[in-house]
Design a protein that fits this description.
The chain is of the alpha/beta class. The chain contains 11 helices and 8 strands. The chain is globular and about 70 Å long. The structure holds zinc ion (ZN). Zinc ion binds next to helix 9.
């Protein structure tokens, strides 16, 4: 039997292209249409919501990225207002540096790539990931100065630094191909996450993508994927024989990777730093959990 998976076409990227260039033109011509534009986005999202609810078909991976991105933008007025403020900031910067908004354009994109600056037919185009809307005004001034001045090394450094900050994590999830799938046969990773977050992080962490992996890995019980902001756990732990405490410990270990990041020293990358190990030992009944792992012949992330 041949099954044909129909995909829903909403025209999200075409909408965004038109919408953003309209916004760009309005601000550059000093037409303040922000209330109209804000409402326009919201109406469009509502209409797509309706289409998605009434059609039982999935979105393409690209459409899914745009969908997450546009719903993030619509979900909170502070998000939309910040994007609008950045458009104003960029255009003010252009004016102050005698750069014409007709030869230079700028667009926020839902993309894995942090930013790209290119020249096509005497048109300069700066595309940048939406997550950078949350960077502050000083960051934007430094970044625009670097990019438009041709200092790409500095621009790369600035964008990397911001992309490694916790403010940027939700945007890594938006463009990720790893699906949030926390519910296993026995354990729900989202439940464990909430307990850990309350107990060890004062509830400060936002939820990463949580998923049971498809492969049954024994040497690595879990991993943290920085580029996706995803904690992925081996399904050998999704088993009644395995104590809840052990699964919880493995999730905690991976969350510490997220919090501690990677330390680079003389060209080498370190993840299990002394500070990491100190935090790891804060896990309640740490010694007991390690002993149980040994009994079950499991060892998490020995490197
Ligand atoms: Zn580790």
């Amino acid at each position: 039997m041949v099954t044909y998976q129909r995909r829903l076409k909403l025209g999200l990227s075409a909408f965004w292209k038109r919408y953003f260039s309209l916004l760009w033109r309005q601000v550059s011509e000093n037409h303040d249409e922000r209330h109209y534009m804000r409402a326009l986005l919201h109406r469009q999202i509502e209409s797509w919501h309706h289409t998605i609810r009434t059609n039982n078909a999935p979105l393409s991976p690209q459409a899914r990225q745009y969908w997450r991105f546009l719903t993030w933008l619509d979900a909170d007025d502070t998000h939309w207002n910040r994007v609008y403020a950045v458009v104003q900031l960029v255009l003010t910067f252009f004016r102050d540096h005698q750069i014409s908004p007709l030869t230079h354009t700028f667009c926020f994109k839902p993309s894995k790539q942090l930013w790209a600056y290119r020249k096509r037919n005497r048109q300069h185009i700066l595309n940048i990931s939406l997550g950078f809307a949350l960077a502050d005004d000083n960051w934007w001034h430094a970044f625009l100065t670097a990019v438009l001045g041709g200092d790409y090394a500095t621009a790369r450094q600035l964008s990397q630094d911001f992309a490694n900050s916790t403010l940027y994590q939700p945007f890594r999830r938006m463009v990720s191909v790893i699906a949030h799938a926390p519910v296993g046969q026995v354990y729900n990773l989202a439940e464990l996450f909430h307990e850990i977050n309350t107990t060890y992080f004062n509830g400060r962490l936002d939820m990463p993508t949580l998923a049971w992996s498809k492969r049954r890995t024994y040497a690595k019980l879990g991993s943290y994927h920085f580029n996706h902001d995803a904690v992925v756990i081996s399904p050998i732990l999704d088993d009644k024989q395995v104590d809840r405490e052990i699964v919880s410990y493995v999730v905690y270990h991976e969350l510490l990777h997220r919090v501690h990041g990677v330390v680079e020293r003389s060209g080498r990358r370190y993840v299990h730093t002394p500070a990491f190990r100190r935090d790891e030992k804060r896990f309640l009944h740490y010694d007991h959990v390690i002993a149980r792992l040994n009994e079950l012949n499991l060892r998490n992330d020995p490197s």
